[in-house]
Each structure stands twice: as structure tokens, then as C-alpha cells.
Write a structure and sequence with these properties.
202 residues, alpha/beta, five-stranded parallel beta sheet, 5 strands, globular, binds 2'-deoxycytidine-5'-monophosphate
Amino acid sequence: MSFTVAIDGPAAAGKGTISKAVAAHFGFAHLDTGLLYRATGRRVLAGEDPVAAARDLQPDDLQRDDLRTADVAQAASRVAAIVEVRSALVDFQISFARRAGGAVLDGRDIGTVICPDAEVKLFVTASDEVRAERRYLELSAKNADVTRAQVLADVRERDARDAARDAAPMVAAQDALVLDTSDLSIDAAVARAIAAVEAGSP
Ligand code: DC
């Protein structure tokens, strides 16, 4: 039997951490759908056509260790606005969501477009400043040469593009539980997400 948890929200809100913890807690599979767009964006930065890159995405593309850079994040957000890129990635996400045993997918349009019938929907958010600070600490731990101001501008630019595009814009589904993690520890945020999944269980 399938059971889908859809977790959407803006950049660096804690979706990834929460999704992994929820998946581990319930023994569900987890798909970070941002990786699909990042892998496409990375191939575009290397000179490929966005639609051809999305259609030809290979498992190895998702395993690369250079998908978490600021440049790739921006490229991902740009290619994600192209309808044909999104269409090329839909089937994979839907079949992942409906696999037996349960699945958690995190992204921007999971509860609205990919899995409108998901059993549980969360929209994880936090203030711009909190999200930028988290992303700054993550990037500086990897020795990336960035400032707080740059990271804040970057996060805001990406969110504005992701929310304003015509194709599957980032928006909370009407039936999503909004989880603001600005003032929550990781453990507290994860506990709320797990409680939401338990409440939504059949
Ligand atoms: O979640 P992330 O930061 O790794 O996502 C990178 C970009 O990919 C994000 O700015 C927008 C795009 N994206 C999307 O449009 N739809 C998704 N389901 C996931 C990501």
C-alpha cells in the first residue's frame, strides 16, 4: 500500500532535515526532488540545453557532490521555471510517491501538483533571516566563500522566482499544515512533523 507525505516550502526552511527524519522514523523512502532540478541546472551550467538535460537525467547525475553550491541552486531555480523541464521530471516523482511502503517527497509543488492526493501535506517555512543564517552556516562549514548578505539576497531571489513562475509555483496547498520552524529546534520541528503524519495516518 502506498502512503505519501508531501513536504514543500522555501529554500533552507528545514524541509530536507525534516523529510529525512520523518522517512527514517516511519521506514518510508525519501526523495529530495530539488536534486532533480539541481542536477538539471548543473548540466545546463556545463553547456547543455535544459530540456534535453532534464529528459536525459541519469541516476549518476543525482549522486554528484557538487549539487549543493549557490550557483547550482540558482541554475536549478531557473530551469525549474521551464514547463518542459518540469514535465520531463513528473513521472519519476509520481511513481516514487506511489511506491509500496510509503514515501516522503520534499520540494516546492509536491502537495499541489505532483501528489495532490498525498495523505499528509506539510508546508515548512521560516523567516528569510533565519533561513539565510542556516544556509550561511551550512555553506561556510564547507569553506564556501560567501557573506551573510549574499546568502540572504540569494535565498530571496530564488524564493521570489520559485513563487512567481507560472509553472507549478511554490505555494502551500490549501490542505497543508504550515510548520514555521523560525523558533523551533530541529528536534521540535521533527516531532511536530511526525505528529502530523501520525494524525494523517489511515
Ligand atoms: O529544494 P532545493 O533548494 O534543492 O531546490 C532547488 C531549486 O529547484 C529550487 O529553487 C526550485 C526548484 N524546485 C522546484 O521547482 N520544484 C521542486 N519540487 C523542487 C525544487
